[in-house]
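Treating backbone geometry as a discrete language has practical consequences that deserve illustration. In the encoding step, the backbone of a single protein was reduced to a row of integers, each denoting a local shape. The amino acid sequence and the backbone structure tokens for this protein are reproduced below.
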Amino acid sequence: MSSVEVYVVVEGRTERTFIRDVLAPALSYRDVFLYPALMGKPGHKGGDVRLDRAKTDIGNFLQQRDDT
């Protein structure tokens, strides 16, 4: 079986830590590798994610990657 890389768009440090410290280690045994990608502006208080903001952040994230 080949490995799978999943980039998880997260809103804040808590979600990033949860992905990195809890989910990623649990799934790595099945060759599923999770990488949290923080969206939004640094210091921005979250809790109200709008589709337009998410689309912009995801688009910016994908443009920064060499393999997309």
About this structure: The chain has a mean pLDDT of 86. Residues 44 and 57 are 13 Å apart (CA to CA).
